Amino acid sequence: MVNKLETYLDFAENDYQHFKFCYKATLVTNQMGAIAQGICEKYLKHVIEEYVIVDNAQKNGEKEKILRTHSVRRHIVGGANRTLISVKTPSRSCRIGT
Among 5-9, 27-31, 51-55, whose mean pLDDT is lowest? Predict the structure, then answer.
């Protein structure tokens, strides 16, 4: 019997359980990468829906837009002027040689 799916967390958990079942049953296909990405996006949308608190209508509209999009990463990572959530990533330095 399938539980009622109502939230992003419900969908993410359901998809993840299916993913694990297929993997354990050696039903591994090329599509598994896309399925895993979809699971991660649903978990991320759950975090946004539950923990991102907005203080005005404009930001609420941006939050709703993010929750409806299929390109969550594009809206999350980037400049603070065009995103709801600003993520700072550390700069990388490379060493050549020893």
Answer: 51-55
